[in-house]
Structure prediction request, 163 residues.
Amino acid sequence: MTRFEKAVRGITGTLCYIATAMLAVLMLLGTSDVVGRYFFNSPIKGAFEISEILLAGTVFFGLAYTSSIQRHVQVDTFVILLPPRLRAAVGCVISFLSLLIFVLIGWQGTELAMTSWEQHRLIDVIYVPIAPFQLFVALGALSVCLELILEMRSFISAIRKGL
Prediction:
């Protein structure tokens, strides 16, 4: 394992732990809000908005980990019939196209966060700046890009070896 790969896996693992913690907080918040609303007639102020933030973090931080353990949904009905070298070439092209898409997602996520920061946009109801939370998208997309680069390196290595 190269130093780059160790660093990427460290980032991915850290974001996975953060996503797991966010999911736990999301579940506790949802449960507490429902209990407060229906049993005490006192819902948690801003629970919906906080849930949206936590959900975005959970999804985007979990994407890279899912990619690192190769658990994304794949439809390989035709690709599985190809010879191994051609299969690796197709995988490399798909990884490259995915990399382009996630670079665009990260770029636009960063642009949106910067615009929100400049305009001093706040989350309704709880009056907290939204820009730091919009960076979850950019950070998650960056980690997916790093994982896709590792995946492309693996495919290129397989193409060179003819496996």
